Protein 1
Amino acid sequence: MIHGADILSYKTDKDLIDFSSNINPLGYPTGLMDFIISEFDNVKSYPDIQYRELRDSLSRYLKTEAKYIVPGNGAMEIIDGVLSKFNRCIIPYPSFIEYELRAKENNCEIEFIAPNPDLSLNVDILKSIIENCSDDGFKNCLIIGNPNNPTGYVLSLEEIKTIHSLCIENEVTLILDEAFFEFTDSNYDTVEYANSMNYKNIIIVRAATKFFGLPGIRLGYGIMNEDNVNFLKHSLNPWSVNSFAESAGRYIFNDRVYIKESVEYIKKEREFLYDQISNLNSFKIFKSRSNYMLLKAMKNDVNELFDFLLQNGILIRLCSTFRGLDNTYIRIAVKSHDDNSYLIKKLKEFYNAK
Amino acid sequence: MIHGADILSYKTDKDLIDFSSNINPLGYPTGLMDFIISEFDNVKSYPDIQYRELRDSLSRYLKTEAKYIVPGNGAMEIIDGVLSKFNRCIIPYPSFIEYELRAKENNCEIEFIAPNPDLSLNVDILKSIIENCSDDGFKNCLIIGNPNNPTGYVLSLEEIKTIHSLCIENEVTLILDEAFFEFTDSNYDTVEYANSMNYKNIIIVRAATKFFGLPGIRLGYGIMNEDNVNFLKHSLNPWSVNSFAESAGRYIFNDRVYIKESVEYIKKEREFLYDQISNLNSFKIFKSRSNYMLLKAMKNDVNELFDFLLQNGILIRLCSTFRGLDNTYIRIAVKSHDDNSYLIKKLKEFYNAK
């Protein structure tokens, strides 16, 4: 599998707990269902082709003007649309597999950046590649997950500024995929920074999918300068956000209590998983700040573990399809306390039986 | 405006009756809302990346195997994805403006085909252009609306066979955009024909949007051979149909009573509009078999009429943005009997006052 969450392909006689899919375990905000039902008859009309109310709602949430915001059918549609503007895409790995797939679909040449030994971004290699790319007339972009998937690493604001300066100097556009940004309890706001730079050579992409517990709804958005907004307006299909996603987007970003509770819950459970898995002495754990965690098995490959967990009703994400990773890596989501405890119990059973 | 239904751009103090948007006036099928609510919590998971149940539902409706079916975020996503396979697109006009826009976005060269004087497809020009296009190694496609927008013309099965044969001989792929096909009460089924030809050089695109009264839901699908299905699987963004659209797609196609009633209602109202507008002696009427109707004003341009109707709470579609048409053309939708009667009343007022 190249994506998590393909739970139907692993259908067994049990209900599976899906640790392969990184979704807010608190579920969607209370009140959302009632709101969407109250707005149901919007389905009788085309969505506003300019998504004015949705963009206003995002504008208040992001504290940037609506003219910089483009909604899309999931963050993927925005990333795909943005990539269609470029001839070359610089991709540090390991990272979300779709960067590479969408870049290829958009006929971008790809320059990969190998990571540091701890899988963090190698800024020296990045620097040399950016400088090498700048002279041949190609339109270049650099795409980085912040937090990165599958490592869960977050860039510091200083790192972003350094990389962004390098991009400006070399006429590269920095695309920050922040689909999981809200989970990180960050001490900076990338949108605030990018706004202060007038979105020069920087595009931020976010999703409602993951943080708001709504993977089925397909709502993402990009934040970028007006030139790029106009480019996307032409390259995206019209009405790509349906009326239900549009309604959701006018509701969820107002729910401050849900947002605060989710961040705190995830942080606590991430720490719980980290401590418990450390105690197993079976994995190297990559210190994530997102709602998932990359683990490297110290001994063997993880196929046997995968099968054992599947038999016990747990689906995890094997990571050998991520560039640079092999069959000793798995990724697990941070889920509800009960689910996390059950996973720990089963991991203990597996490793104690060894 | 390049599209109908942009009602927000014409917001007045009145509620507008939107004759610019071609949607089933009976509204969506009874029971759909309850079904979608009962399936609401699907939003907590990613949609099945392979859309197995949805494709099975479509397979039963279309009487063709699920392996030939690709669902998309509206028919537009399918058309856009299909066009990305080709270097050249042959487009008879007047036709839906997005054919040209999406072809350009996909870097297709475009060959336009001028219509007969009655705006029907000029098969002689089509033949010569197809034969001219076949020798330069380009991948060629031909896209035709069936029924065509804005004329409402439907091809006969014999015409389809002729055009399709020509396409096969010259290695052109025929794309039939049948977004409005269900409205036509056709005496043939294009899918049955294409299926009998193993979908060789033919792709059919349909929508749930219009016929099922669900423009807000964004659900379309393509029917094509497995090579093309595999091409689209890679070129489309993953999970592009959201969980609400997916649920709708598992419901609406089963509602045979709604389908039958809608076809009969539209036919009756289309005839009512035709007769009433004929009596005005102010328009040439293009004999549509769809749920909209193209009119050419016999005297002046139609801007004054547009403004008069807008003041009376009616939005119609000016057609000068359609290639080949000018500011003497309008398109009106077939709506509910009350709405249609109100339109006729206002048209009478306008033309009697002249």
Note: The longest strand of chain B covers residues 140-145.
Protein 2
Amino acid sequence: MLSVVVEHIFLLVLVTLISVLQNAFFATKVEREGKEHHANTSAFERVSCTNRNCMDSYPTFLAVMWCAGLCLNQAPAAFAGLVYLGARQKYFVGYMGQTSQSTPGFLFGKRVLSFLFLMCIVGIFNLLLVRCFGNDFKDTVETIATAASALLLIP
Amino acid sequence: MLSVVVEHIFLLVLVTLISVLQNAFFATKVEREGKEHHANTSAFERVSCTNRNCMDSYPTFLAVMWCAGLCLNQAPAAFAGLVYLGARQKYFVGYMGQTSQSTPGFLFGKRVLSFLFLMCIVGIFNLLLVRCFGNDFKDTVETIATAASALLLIP
Amino acid sequence: MLSVVVEHIFLLVLVTLISVLQNAFFATKVEREGKEHHANTSAFERVSCTNRNCMDSYPTFLAVMWCAGLCLNQAPAAFAGLVYLGARQKYFVGYMGQTSQSTPGFLFGKRVLSFLFLMCIVGIFNLLLVRCFGNDFKDTVETIATAASALLLIP
């Protein structure tokens, strides 16, 4: 019974696992920085702040990705999640490297999150349409979403 | 198959989307405050602290709302979620306005969260009752929950 | 319809509720410390920092526990969740008591999280195996997971 549901979410689970690994990587970096550089507190401050920024937007990201995956289709949602994780990695590593690069970063990965947000809205809209008129545009919409997710790769 | 499940959660998804929009609004406020008032750091500190308080309780809120919606019924859970988002908005805007109003705010929206919490417990209790005795009080309980959620509006 | 799904997750919901209660307990501690000891700011700083560490890893914990419970079986996942909550309680109380004990704590409960992580991977791997070969090792794997979760109690 439940395995039918799991078939529809296992890509989302995979991306969630990768994000957990990334969180662990970030936490390890912060921990090591805190231990090694007791004198150089500014480096620790910076890494810790970056980690905080990343963790602040983490629940939001998880919620939007899962909603998008459940409402419409898991494949484009999982792909967008991967792109987001890539952007986060780039943001974290870039932050660690140089002091000069002080992007506020509360809203990095804006494009990916907006895309997932749109997917949710389209999914719910589609559900209401199906209820009212009985026409199912879901296949069409899913194809468009999968194609549109490829656009996220354009920098 | 999955669309049957989605019918039972689309109100929860909608409230989640609204909360994500609110998060984005908070983050934008913090970002703008950080850029504009480099001299006036106390304002930035305050907004940033408020944002942190809001984000700290965000995963808790999401977890309780989804559990309540899944265990019992989505309509009262989504309504309580909306009331919580309203309280959060009021808290954030009030915090930004005046320095004097320094509510600790770790536990704002206590009443709504307690209500959602109760809904979860009632839902699980109901499930166990159904398993043991075969009586289904779910319809009665759902009606009571929907009626009780209107009580949340009383200030 | 949905009640069939709820049967498979109600243990996870229970553990989530317990974790929410713990969050409320932590927040109350921080609030009281902030009110009572205005002079003694170091104590407040410490409790607040501990609370932050706990809340930082909270979404990660929730995500891993739910994925493990959905992919494989809820009983060992919920048990591992309980063990994690116990470790968190011990960490928080120990942090409050003494200044000397300054464990970084970004990664407390590493063993439990790794176990849940492994459960997810095994669950997804099992799903793929079932798809390709049609053999269902799920019962065997679930038994092993339940037995392995008892190993978590060894300190």
Note: Chain C has a mean pLDDT of 77.
Protein 3
Amino acid sequence: MPHIASLCANSHRLYTMADHKWTGSVKSLKGVILDMCGVLYDSGEGGGVPISGSVEAVKRLKESDLQLRFCTNETQATREKFVAKLQRMGFELSVSEVFSPAPAAVSILKERGLKPHLLVHDDLVPEFDSVDKTNPNCVVIGDAADKFSYKNLNDAFQVLIGMEKPVLFSLGRGRYYKETDGLKLDVGVYMKALEYACDVEAEVVGKPSAMFFQSVLNDMALQPHEVLMIGDDLVNDVGGAQQCGMKGLQVRTGKYRPSDERHPTVTADGYVDNLAAAVDIILRHRSQ
Amino acid sequence: MPHIASLCANSHRLYTMADHKWTGSVKSLKGVILDMCGVLYDSGEGGGVPISGSVEAVKRLKESDLQLRFCTNETQATREKFVAKLQRMGFELSVSEVFSPAPAAVSILKERGLKPHLLVHDDLVPEFDSVDKTNPNCVVIGDAADKFSYKNLNDAFQVLIGMEKPVLFSLGRGRYYKETDGLKLDVGVYMKALEYACDVEAEVVGKPSAMFFQSVLNDMALQPHEVLMIGDDLVNDVGGAQQCGMKGLQVRTGKYRPSDERHPTVTADGYVDNLAAAVDIILRHRSQ
């Protein structure tokens, strides 16, 4: 990543402009949706570590008059285990406040009477306990990490290529995420692989799907323009929320890269250094 | 794969029409290029097995007045080992008659002073012995099969994402190939995965690259319209050859599927049941 100096100069200019744009609407906000990995914590060995100031920032939001929900594409654990991990890091949150792709996928499978072949992380499998998986007639992929072996991807491919009209669900479409030891390939990369292999388009469950964001808005009983999404993923968090009519803020933590601030198609309503800074600005503007 | 009966009826009709089209130009042919896997043999455990009649068909072509070359996207072995395997199956061919992506990639790397990170089959590595691989500034992927682990794909991704302008070479862009125990994912699937992860377009070395086909034509010192390509891959063999101005014949062996005969963008100049049938027709029309 060269030209860091010029990028930073550039991003500072954009920040100043964009900052003005989003803070103007802070007073009319009624709810905030937070992405989790890369905003609250950095994942990695042992479950990861909180990002400086984020535990306190969540606490401040909870004590405010804003509604708060959490929206993640995390698919390496059941929602229960995932929430327990965040609680151990010190975050105040409960399972009912967290929206993740697997429960949404289970609803869709049941509605449409589909039986999945799963290519997901071992720890996510229990989310699908209530779903019939005999004689599969679709494939569900999540962030399977080390389970994305050649054999396992080939097994999923065999199921799809044997169908008249292959049905592929992808739990998110992220390219990569940041762990404490570096960037790691995400489920979207393997979604693209299977899409190309079978000449099919996957149905994405999770961010940036509009249906997924809408389910969070429904739960808050709020209109899109009353809600701000904060995430580290420009396309899936910010762009997805904007498509739904929300404002979207990108934090410069997690998978953020300076080049995000000159992305050809998605421009955040604002860029802030981290969640603590975002919450500071929000609460300051609301108290003025 | 449903509607087999109607597809077969359909394909028979297309065959009759297309047959007429390609046989008209057989008398003016001066050379034939054969794809190997799926035309000469089916790969699988123990190296694979010859397709019925293909050993004799190659022998008949060699005894004719036509020039003959072999053009493969095989990247699971060095050209020497690969040719030795085919010779053990009974095929008459020599290393100098076989064109494969790895030697072509080595030429490109040397021309451009590039140092590759390799994600290829262990048995292909010796092809790159003469290339400096320290501090890699590009990635070369081939059909790595079981070596396409999450870790290895992630390692290749890390090299690419760390570069200002990622340079990715893919040895072919096939979706899948047929082994004796079923269809297997090919390198193109992983090329698409890395393209999406890094927002980059791979440079394809091998079929269907025009540069690759042209190197075979140069070796024969023939013009495209004087040469017929015979393959089982509609897009990479037939479509690639047609893009170069050759005629392209698809055999109904290997990875052939009935739906190929109603492909939206590529139509073969003819469809034949297997190589033996193709050679029969060619030699019969030339002797008339």
Note: The CA atoms of residues 42 and 48 of chain B lie 5 Å apart.
Protein 4
Amino acid sequence: MNEGLDLEGRIRWGMVGGGQGAFIGAVHRMAARLDDRYLLVAGAPSSNSERARASGAQLRLDPERVYTDYRTMARVEAQRPDGIEVVSIVAPNHLHYDVACAFLDAGIHVVCDKPLTRTLAEADALVTRTRASGQLFGVTYPYSGYPLVRHARDLVRSGQLGEIRVVQAEYAQDWLADAVEETSHKQAAWRTDPAQAGEGGCVADIGTHAFHLLGFVTGMNVDQLSAELTRFVPGRRVDDDAQVRLRFANGARGMLWASQVAPGCQNGLMLRVFGTEGSLTFQQEKPDELWLTPLRGAPQRLTRGGLGLSPAALRATRLPAGHPEGFVEAFGQLYRDMADQVEARRHGRLPDPMSLLLPDVVDGANGMQFVDAALRSSREDGAWVEMDGTRWR
Amino acid sequence: MNEGLDLEGRIRWGMVGGGQGAFIGAVHRMAARLDDRYLLVAGAPSSNSERARASGAQLRLDPERVYTDYRTMARVEAQRPDGIEVVSIVAPNHLHYDVACAFLDAGIHVVCDKPLTRTLAEADALVTRTRASGQLFGVTYPYSGYPLVRHARDLVRSGQLGEIRVVQAEYAQDWLADAVEETSHKQAAWRTDPAQAGEGGCVADIGTHAFHLLGFVTGMNVDQLSAELTRFVPGRRVDDDAQVRLRFANGARGMLWASQVAPGCQNGLMLRVFGTEGSLTFQQEKPDELWLTPLRGAPQRLTRGGLGLSPAALRATRLPAGHPEGFVEAFGQLYRDMADQVEARRHGRLPDPMSLLLPDVVDGANGMQFVDAALRSSREDGAWVEMDGTRWR
Amino acid sequence: MNEGLDLEGRIRWGMVGGGQGAFIGAVHRMAARLDDRYLLVAGAPSSNSERARASGAQLRLDPERVYTDYRTMARVEAQRPDGIEVVSIVAPNHLHYDVACAFLDAGIHVVCDKPLTRTLAEADALVTRTRASGQLFGVTYPYSGYPLVRHARDLVRSGQLGEIRVVQAEYAQDWLADAVEETSHKQAAWRTDPAQAGEGGCVADIGTHAFHLLGFVTGMNVDQLSAELTRFVPGRRVDDDAQVRLRFANGARGMLWASQVAPGCQNGLMLRVFGTEGSLTFQQEKPDELWLTPLRGAPQRLTRGGLGLSPAALRATRLPAGHPEGFVEAFGQLYRDMADQVEARRHGRLPDPMSLLLPDVVDGANGMQFVDAALRSSREDGAWVEMDGTRWR
Amino acid sequence: MNEGLDLEGRIRWGMVGGGQGAFIGAVHRMAARLDDRYLLVAGAPSSNSERARASGAQLRLDPERVYTDYRTMARVEAQRPDGIEVVSIVAPNHLHYDVACAFLDAGIHVVCDKPLTRTLAEADALVTRTRASGQLFGVTYPYSGYPLVRHARDLVRSGQLGEIRVVQAEYAQDWLADAVEETSHKQAAWRTDPAQAGEGGCVADIGTHAFHLLGFVTGMNVDQLSAELTRFVPGRRVDDDAQVRLRFANGARGMLWASQVAPGCQNGLMLRVFGTEGSLTFQQEKPDELWLTPLRGAPQRLTRGGLGLSPAALRATRLPAGHPEGFVEAFGQLYRDMADQVEARRHGRLPDPMSLLLPDVVDGANGMQFVDAALRSSREDGAWVEMDGTRWR
């Protein structure tokens, strides 16, 4: 048992959800282990006690700290002298709000999957609650952890692309091209169930990633959007394709396409940003390269680990150029950022400013604002719907 | 002089526009020469007699058949026993309608650049006029001449992609990212002048190519569109970016992006078609490859000249696989199609059905319907505007 | 008939070989037509009079100028006032020497396919004969006609790569992976018949292209080579795979791989050059791009038609960037070069120095030196064999 | 301190080398942590006690188990009831043999970096010693841990490529294009020092990776090789470029190029295998894709996580398709394989046969045979040198 374990300065960490067979919980754990700054010591992997026990054993948790109820977990851990400092929420969307509140109220920092909540109202409330709690709140938009995404952000900020005019974002997958939710596909089942996933389907599940990415890189606010959400697969209860046009505050225009019915697309998140002086292109499936093209110049293939990258990119780089890094490493960067912030708190100092690139509760809430606006616009036949980029500022 | 020339069965051919320094006229001529089925014997390269003479000499035309006025050319050539059988119109858009009418009325077949006319009304009239004349009318949407585009069309028709759900088309360039029309850039000047180019800028100049391509490949009609046209470059008089959403008759959805202010994009025409059973991707800058991905299968890279291509693709193929063909060859395919049709007429037989893939006046007019609808939608803040795919049927 | 034809300054041109069904003859004709500077007026398409007549008719040749014997053709054409000025030899390799001599002796310029001859001895003799004749002699290594190959050459010469250390060339195909020569595959039959093709198979047929390309771009002489030639397909009479190591005069090292039994390779000619200051990569199947990477810098994708290219590249460019050019256009560049040289002769002036990039008889002979050395080395188990880069200087 | 730590079934693990600033030690640790099956409890990070202490603290090791001498470490750990079960050797090459022997003799399993030893004689001795010890011995050729490399191996074995004819391997880098070893570049300094790295430079450092990869995938033995090793950078004491030709037992032919002076190449390991029925291509920098081309068929882009992959590939896959995995994950697969073998030993059962894909001491020794043969051949001007693929069978 872990009872006697001296954590040697590692962050005491718990997880809600992520039991056996869950995809994203395992990713969180690999990501957190990469740098050896966390130790998983508690969890609520399932509300079913049998399954919770089995998952806990597999994760080598002390049975005493394997819970079937997140409220109990929050309360008990908060009282233990060796209780968790951070909890990661990897349960289905409809649970995010309640679980997060329970831990925030217990004085425990939160890492939460996206989409942040099931509704925009919940998101609003969660921003308020987080602020009141004074706790840290990270949202796992993992694509913002790629070194070259951070470099892209710095390129835009440094003015290398000039004034941004056009933003093209897309995120295409094909795993929902059939009615797989009617088979025993657990992932598909909850992600297409409005009661668990929220009213938005594809637009929330992956559209929010594309939306966050374009804001993260450009730093620009969307003022208005016009959306067309479609349910292509017969019987599906949520959208599986989203086509959105964006108007930015500075006059730039953008398109965002998210689809889960696009054969041949696996995890095709791509961002292209065009400015008066140049452009950049990032494709998630090739995360170690970033294309930068100056106006009237030759396209340059920048690579992670190459020379001339920004401090934020270097900080997020683990391996020399040509040694591929991937999704787990990007995810791991978010856990590093959180660890930096947690440790700064422990020692009463300011965190590394670059650790603040970690998406926070406002970024998560803004994703819900996007989903909400897209749903409303689509219902109104694509009418332009206002967004307020400063809603929580 | 060419007086005594026995054409040996070649098609007697003339050109309006395309004098010294013109880009597209030279392309038409290379394309027509590839297969040696045309002989250029007359032209109206310029309304300026000095420039006309110089261009005529460069083209080795009989000075007698170098005209400064297309009306005279049409009349005189129609009367000569060795008069031209086909005229190609490569003058700015605002002249297309009048020039075409002059030659149609004179009993001469027409090949005309896109966009077909300056307005939809002209396009309507030209369809009527063409039908009344009984002459052939080809429109040079050259991208439909690529062998793999024709194969893509056959793939869709054969049902290999299943029912089409999503169509993504884009055509991005960067040559108008600055106000080059204010310099001595002749191409830029007339293409951004509403009086010469028509009210549509980018949407007409290249949007029509993307629109034709998606219709050519999918065979599907657009029922409604919603467009956002933008003028990014200060002082520009026409749109230089067009973002369009499409609704197809069968319920499919599409996005079309055309831009001339996208640094790093040279001639980035791309089409992606997603169906229930698979998808295809074609990129104009890599015209010798076509990606076909069956649902749940591995992407296949089909190549021009490879095995298993359709008869229409084979017919349009000149070289073995791995020996690149390009834009001139695709353009040349349209001239081949026209030659097949002209020769069939000569001999009173039906043309090769595959030669009818040559875009015709209705395809050209449909492009103008697209431009007109996009302009109207954009003026109305992106309202959905109806299109009638059967308008000229 | 063409009798009365005034050629209007076009070059009077003939062809030996290239009758119906021949691949490369048709390429020569398309290439020569592109710029309208040649007119095909005579030919010896076949020694069979029936086939010659049919081919002649298809090519719209005056029957009087359709020959079944190249010697007659050379003699008669030399005597006609309107006789051909240039002949292109597209017959199988074993005929190159005799045909070339006949036309050179008749005072007619020659364009000849590669490999130049069947043996090195013939190549030696042909250099001598060409020099004695005073006629022009072009060899169609078409890959040297690509604009970006010419730019690559200028990059090396300008020192942008520093001192060259390593050269990697390869040319892989798969069309001879089976014993297709035993079927009715005409191309395969003669190319694998030592009596017609020469003793070298793959090494001569495509190895010479790779060898020429690396010399053309680097300007460096190979001093020694070590080769392993293999016949993989049972029953084949010539090598179908060649693996060669190269030592250059300046101490650089290189590898050259040519294969016709490499499934998945269509026409995979690639050249990579690595120097102390940078590298370049060119792939024939993507001829509109050239990769340039400065040491410690980001790879740049240079494109044909882009800014900053050398005069030699610009001169060879027909279309704006993004409008693909291909093999016929590269081939056409060689015909342009020859036309420039012929016209300079006509007018008694020096040709455009850039037209001298056209590979000449010495380049052709050097290819035979390469074949000869590779055959000898391979016979001696890969022993180093000397080459003399200045043999004909 | 870790004293009270109950390892909960994790493998007790130590490391020799890999102190602060070392690249590969950190990779081993991330790789081992990914699956949480190891716990690092002892180390000899440096022979300098100050540096050892600092590194030990950073690694959170019990100071008692931070050693400055690997012999002491082996002896002490072997005696502790909670002593390490596995040691990883990440010190420079010249130490591998002695360190490995010390731990093998102490009854501790070994994971060792490549090249296995400094000389072939040492490699021979190490094979013998390992066998005598009965301990497990893994060699970290990490590229064999990529799922698609394992799939490639299964493709060859299943006969999908037919009989293999040609193998093309290359591994090109540019980090030694300058004399960086003369600066304070620690990695460069020892890798170019024959006393530490062995007599082979590039051929040993990265050539062995390419050599192992080609054998791993094809399962074929090299019978003879002919090599040209070059020192391009003035003052360098070992080769920085290796050009090798290979003859395989079945008559196949191959080329292997390894270079560390190739600008623009970061970690360019590539393998291409051509058989009578098809080919495959793998590029290490894009490890999530594998190209498979059947003869006369279209190239297929297989992706990690896609359908239809072999059990060995699936077993090595952590994430769904489109979520990039990289070098750490491949490396982690070797640690998984070792963990499977160690745990099977613990429980007295046979290991998962797929865990035996972990390269072992014979694979390591065979790499040294390759280095030795290449050095000898190069000294003899490229003479063919025999290799014995069954030397240790």
Note: The domain at 146-321+360-386 of chain B is CATH 3.30.360.10 (Dihydrodipicolinate Reductase; domain 2).
